[in-house]
Design brief:
This protein is an all-alpha fold. It is built from three helices and no strands. It starts with a helix and ends in a 5-residue tail after the last helix.
Length: about 80
């Protein structure tokens, strides 16, 4: 496995963990009213990042990455 792949999986896992941790905090702890707008902005960004992670690993990007890997590994010999 390449270093780029490891970093990609670790970053995707961290974003997912942060998403569920923030979701847990929102459910079980009251939101401070003075920081409400900033918190909404941060949560929106985190939701966007999580959507990008899910789309990459389970959407068309995953199929495209597999296709590219197959094409590079099966080059015809001259």
């Amino acid at each position: 496995m390449k270093t780029k792949d490891v970093v990609m999986y670790v970053l995707g896992g961290l974003i997912t963990l942060c998403f569920f941790f923030v979701l847990y905090l929102l459910i079980f702890y009251p939101m401070p009213q003075e920081n409400k707008d900033v918190l909404y902005l941060a949560i929106g960004a985190l939701i966007g990042f999580e959507g990008a992670v899910v789309n990459y690993f389970y959407g068309s990007s995953a199929g495209s990455a597999q296709k590219t890997e197959l094409m590079t590994n099966n080059k015809p010999k001259e």
